[in-house]
Amino acid sequence: MFEHSYEEQLRLKEEEINQDFDDLFSGDKDVFPSLEENFRIRAEFKIGSLSQNYLMMDFDKNFLDIDVCHIVDKKILALMPLLNLEIKNNDILKNKLFRLEFLTSRDEILLTLIYHRKLDKEWEDEMKSLSEKLNIYIIGRSRKQKVILSRDYINESLFINGNEYKYFLQENTFIQPNRHINEKIISWLVDNAPNKDDLLELYCGHGNLTIPLAKNFNRVLATEISKGSIANAKKNLELNNIKNVSFVKMSSEEFTQAMNKQREFFRLKDVSLDEYNFSTILIDPPRAGVDEKTIKLISKFENIMYISCSPKSLKRDLLSLSKTHSIKKMAIFDQFPYTKHIEMGAILKIKPD
Q1: Is it the case that residue 8 has pLDDT exceeding 60?
Q2: Alpha-carbon distance 286 to 115, whole Å?
Q3: pLDDT tens digits, residue range 153-205?
Q4: 172: which residues sit within 8 A by CB, 6+ positions away?
Q5: Is CATH 2.40.50.1070 the right assignment for the domain spanning 42-154?
Q6: Closest by Cα among 125, 114, 173, 116 to 149
Q7: What dotted CATH number matches 6-36+178-350?
Q8: Is 343 a catalytic residue?
Q9: Does residue 245 register a pLDDT over 60?
Q10: Spatial contact of 307 and 209, defined as CB atoms under 8 Å apart
């Protein structure tokens, strides 16, 4: 049992954020609460080697048997007991199974089973039967082995300000865990983004933020270091028939070198950076935040949109950017209810000379 209600937990998070950021931004922050139940569209569970029960790690990093998990999407919640029964009653399925990973969209479920053994034809036959019985997509993994029974992706839709955007979500790539809050983050950015010039986006992933924001700008150039994410981003571009976005596989450090004309990259052979009229930059970096050289690049833009999953690194970066920019808006997104983690957003505008 939790010590506080969800509303109280969110209020305590909000108080802590306001206290930490009061020296940078004293205005009211937009606050976006999560759904209290069924908010996680992806979830991982360890499987007990003897019991075949679902195991979840508690706050003290101890594994606990669970019978039900109310934070996961309703489709996952409904599937869990049915799947558990199938595994317990099938020696082939449960043999050296140690982890399950669920990924769900509005209409589909992808299940990955991870084993400490080589997966053979007998396992495939059993899994094909299970896939048909439960109406789900299944992948098997073991050391240096990936078995795809039908496909390794699902189709998702996000609704932003009344518009539907379609996404190709592939197994084993980064995907936002809370669909409700993800839509709130994107809507907040769309509502606060300037409608002019060109946009540069760093850390774009599979185009989660890029695609709905594209309509606000003449052109968009988006970069990401992951080859798989860039491939998925290009597929998502086609799904939504968007023509004004270009994706490039580059790290933020590499792109900073390219923008500063310190180094030429073959990956930019079809991109003329000088032809872009960038006035806005969007960043959604990993928990560590942004490196110093990239911060210097960011500080040259008229408008900065910053999404962060770490208030600590966000504050560090905003302290640097506040020398050149004013913080116009901030937001709190409760992406991770019942944990200490919080997602934040900041909109900055360059100061007059």
Answers
A1: yes
A2: 29
A3: 999 999 999 999 999 999 988 899 999 999 999 999 999 999 889 999 999 99
A4: 112, 152, 228
A5: yes
A6: 125
A7: 3.40.50.150
A8: yes
A9: yes
A10: yes
